[in-house]
Sequence to fold (273 residues):
Amino acid sequence: MTRFTTSADGTEIAYSVTGSGPALLLVDGAMCHRRFGPTTELASVLDKDFTVHTYDRRGRGETGDGATPWSLEREVEDVDAVIREAGGSAFVFGASSGAVLAMEAASRLPGITRLALYEAPFVVDGTYEPRPADIVRQMNDMLARGDRSRMLSTFMKMVGVPGIGLAVMKLTPVWKKLKPVAHTLPWDLTILGDDGRGTPLPANRWKVEVPTLAMDGGKSPEYLRNAMRNVAEVLGADHRTLPGQTHLYKSSVMAPELVEFFSRAQRTAGPIA
Fold:
């Protein structure tokens, strides 16, 4: 069942709740939402241990583009709005660009008590071609022309989808589902900031002071694994590589890692006086 909460600027944020236990918020990556992406299945596995909150980020699913112009601050406020509905505090798991948003939120919101991240798509060394410095402008120019299909193609090529795979994707129903949310790509790319130019992450960009787990997949590209090692370094986080996983992780593999990490808070909290 869809619920709605009001963000700070008046935008109605669509979200769902399932399960019981400590509150856990899942933050999607680019173009995904509650009913289209990996968190749908992941939530159904995790709800045996947590009260899982999933939500539609701005411009996706049942959440509109926003009552005010998009900004990173508005997206952080959206996270805060869902956490308020969860009782004021929650564990958070973010994947891909959602991991970067989760890092930004954890730097600003006291309600996030533990943070797990999977493959934030930074480029921190020479193992992958840097993103063009003007990629956000390019995307906005395509959007202004109404060329959503080219926006998707440009993004897919940039993240390494091979030409044959892209050609096949354009013939599937998935492509039609992606085009309505293509306008959110410049937003996700803005969230990534300049951390795609092939240089290490700045040590002072994030002020995350809660226990954090940075994860990557053993079969993912080298640049993503290197990026998450760098994330672990700058956040002082634990680091874990999930054997056999790619950027599209399997819920059956991810869920036990999250249960183990977030359950540490319960085991170490001690008795209440």
